[in-house]
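Long-time lurker. I teach an intro course on protein structure, and each term I like to show students one example going from raw sequence to a predicted 3D structure in token notation. This year I'd like something fresh instead of my usual example. Would anyone be willing to generate the tokens for the chain below so I can use it in lecture? Attribution to the forum is fine with me.
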Amino acid sequence: MGAGKSRLPPQTLSELQANVDVDFTHEEIQQWYHEYLKTTGRYKTRLTREDFQRVYDSVFVGDSRDFVGHLFRTFDLNNDGYVDFKEFIVGLCVSGSERVDRKLGWAFRMYDTDGSGAITREEMTIMLKAINKMISQNNKRSASDKGNSHQNNSIHDSATVEEMVETFFRSADKNGDNQITEDEFIEGTKHMPVFLHLLEWDPDSA
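-- Reply from a regular --
Happy to contribute to a lecture. Here you go:
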């Protein structure tokens, strides 16, 4: 059956519409299902990390492998190494949500790389370096196209990464235990929104 004629099973649609994190309409979910089938192909029902990687490779010039690995982790809710359609829709809705609390919850999970429920300096550094590897080449190309040597919205070097992490911890780590809880992260990003904006970086805006 061709992807264009496939319909989402009614039970799956009902489960998605009952999910509190899903705010897509019936029609939007069905449209995404068609796009999902185009990516998985005829003989697959789940997305792999490699499928995610191909999408990012088509958009970013830089090395996005580390970032994609962390993004895939936040979509793969049951940690089975695959993203099925329900996980895909939930991930899209949460990561692209207009609700700040929901999006910040997703951002926290991105930085909490080991899933412990708290972010360490090392984890935040790992994520910022992954972002920089992905976006730096896009920024260089954009700056070259514009005749501008400055790289806006990028992290220039390891020293800058370390400084950003230390600044965030000084501001957000209220109890001084050298780790950031979700509540501390949400409060901290109110004063340093760059930690959310970097996760949403759009290469077309560079």
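Some talking points for your students: The mean pLDDT is 87. The two ends are 41 Å apart (CA to CA).
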